[in-house]
Specification:
Elements lengths: L6 H11 L3 H6 L7 E5 L6 H7 L5 E2 L6 E4 L9 H4 L3 E3 L6 H6 L6 E4 L6 H10 L4 E5 L5 H11 L5 E4 L3 H7 L4 E7 L13 H5 L2 H21 E11 L8 H10 L3 E4 L8 E2 L16 E3 L9 E8 L10 H12 L5 H15 L3 H4 L6 E4 L2 E4 L12 E4 L1 E7 L2 E4 L1 H5 L9 E4 L4 H7 L4 E2 L5 E7 L2 E9 L2 E4 L9
Parallel strand pairs: 5-6, 5-8, 6-7, 8-9, 19-21
Antiparallel strand pairs: 1-3, 1-4, 2-3, 7-16, 9-13, 10-13, 11-12, 12-13, 14-15, 15-17, 17-18, 20-23, 21-22, 22-23
Helix pairs in contact: 8-10, 10-11
The chain binds S-adenosylmethionine.
Protein name: Methylase
Family: Belongs to the class I-like SAM-binding methyltransferase superfamily. RsmB/NOP family.
GO biological process, one term: RNA processing
């Protein structure tokens, strides 16, 4: 495919890489590397390996990451629908790994769709703390929400905002922020040849300017002492080393810090920015001719503990608290509907979702928020925490997200199937299944992992697998 590469791109890479250029160019004739990341919110790494239907080879920089051969098609396996893993190219696994999410933290993934890194960060949080996963593009945000649901994430808020708008709402709020920036995508030319069509020198410049705005907004939302990871999937120095130097010049409160295992990747290039900047040697370049993965860039920054930590103005805080107290119409009925559903179909959840102030009703949709009392009114929000269900005529119809975030042990009725049972594919295609059992909402599982809801009635399990997710 080397003949399809843009001439101006190859010329620039030749002058940057010198003797290494031949090996770099040859990497375009090597096969694309495919990866999957096991989702520990659903299954422990070793447990998955003991039952994996695919031949897997570990990715050294991501504890749950593996390479597989294309013909394995893990996206077509029911385990994918059950959220046991996320398909993610190996190099792309490095960014969230560098941010190192820990339970209880507040984390922002500012450019998040379709959710590869968000699902990885959520796994690090392990259900405790908050993930705000933001995507500016209104169509892409849908895939982001679906992927977080499939992976059983309970504590994520999905927003569809500009970084500037979020900045107004979350000053110095997050412990850690990931900026997986929109970029010219040069590192994806091998995997997604359509990225070649989109590329131009003007696009590189446009992305560089956009990255500056996004990084400025991120810096305003990070707490003093907080960590910011910046990543791209491009080789252009203007979008990598130069974007960082320009940011560091405007923000001397940030320093570049060492990545967890600097030896895994090639260093960033202090000379590829103007002015030359020595700390860029601590950033990383993932080259397709030096590792089994596509092209990426990665930098970890820390905000000084002394950076201005002035709190939100008191007035604004008061207003929020006051708003949170006003109960929207229908809320009481929605909570009663939830309780009636949970008592009957998932009694254990009554204790897990016990904080009254965390229930949020948007129209007919009931959610359980990881940030009770926060006023989401002024933001475009696709989902706040766990979607519990739809309230219809004072009854709760459980959400797909609730099924995917629950275990069979929590459900009163379970329809369990083995992964090689043809009924599983029939369920994923949206068909009703012939089955005897007690009437009512029933959790459908594959090898003991939740797949979705069915409603048992008179010898039949009616299919409630979401229409938009059904296998064709
Ligand atoms: C590299 S992709 C993110 C991939 C994602 N982090 C993942 O791991 O699945 C960059 C994202 O930034 C979004 N984006 C584009 N312009 C943006 C802007 N001005 N501010 C924030 N995000 C933007 C794009 O729509 C795209 O989804």
């Amino acid at each position: 495919m080397t003949q399809n590469l843009p001439g101006l791109f190859t010329e620039r890479m030749k002058s940057l890489l010198n003797q290494e250029f031949a090996a770099f160019l040859a990497s375009y004739d090597q096969p694309v590397t495919y990866g999957l990341r096991v989702n520990p919110l659903k299954v422990a790494r070793e447990q998955f390996l003991s039952r994996s239907p695919f031949a897997l080879e570990p990715v050294s920089w991501c504890v749950n990451g593996f390479r597989y051969q294309d013909q394995e098609r893990p996206g077509k396996h029911p385990y994918h629908a059950a959220g046991l893993y996320y398909l993610q190219e190996p190099s792309a696994m490095s960014a969230a790994e560098a941010l190192d999410a820990q339970p209880g933290e507040r984390i922002l993934d500012l450019c998040a769709a379709p959710g590869g890194k968000s699902t990885q960060l959520a796994a690090g949080l392990n259900g405790q703390g908050l993930l705000v996963a933001n995507e500016i593009h209104p169509v892409r945000v849908k895939a982001l929400a679906e992927n977080l649901e499939r992976c059983g994430v309970k504590n994520a808020v999905v927003t569809n905002e500009t970084p500037e708008k979020l900045q107004e709402r979350f000053p110095q709020f997050f412990d850690k922020i990931l900026v997986d920036a929109p970029c010219s995508g040069e590192g994806m030319f091998r995997k997604l040849p359509e990225a070649i069509e989109d590329w131009s020198p003007d696009k590189v410049t446009e992305c560089h300017l956009m990255q500056q705005d996004i990084l400025d907004a991120a810096s305003a939302m990070l707490k003093p002492g907080g960590t910011l990871v910046y990543s791209t999937c491009t080789f252009a120095p203007l979008e990598n080393e130069q974007s960082l130097v320009d940011f560091l010049t405007r923000h001397p409160e940030f320093t570049v810090v060492e990545l967890p295992e600097p030896g895994w990747f090639a260093p960033g290039q202090p000379d590829w920015a103007n002015p030359r900047c020595e700390p860029l040697g601590k950033t990383a370049r993932l080259w397709p001719h030096l590792l089994q993965g596509e092209g990426h860039y990665l930098a970890k920054l820390q905000k000084s503990h002394d950076a201005d930590s002035s709190e939100l103005p008191e007035k604004r805080k008061d207003k929020r608290a006051a708003k949170a107290k006003t109960a929207p119409a229908g809320r009481k009925e929605a909570l009663l509907a939830w309780r009636a559903f949970a008592e009957e179909a998932m009694p254990e959840l009554l204790a897990e979702f016990a904080d009254e102030s965390a229930f949020l009703l948007f129209g007919e949709q009931l959610y359980y928020s990881p940030l009770p009392g926060f006023d989401w009114d002024k933001l475009k929000v696709a989902r706040v925490g766990l979607h519990l269900g739809t309230v219809k005529k004072n009854r709760l119809e459980p959400a797909h997200a609730l099924a995917l975030a629950s275990t069979p042990a929590q459900a009163a009725r379970v329809a369990s199937y083995a992964s090689d049972d043809p009924q599983v594919v029939r369920y994923l295609k949206g068909e009703a299944l012939a089955r005897d059992g007690a009437n009512g909402w029933t959790l459908v599982t594959v090898d003991g992992f939740s797949l979705g809801w069915g409603k048992q009635s008179e010898g039949q399990l009616k299919n409630h697998y979401p229409k938009g997710l059904r296998w064709l």
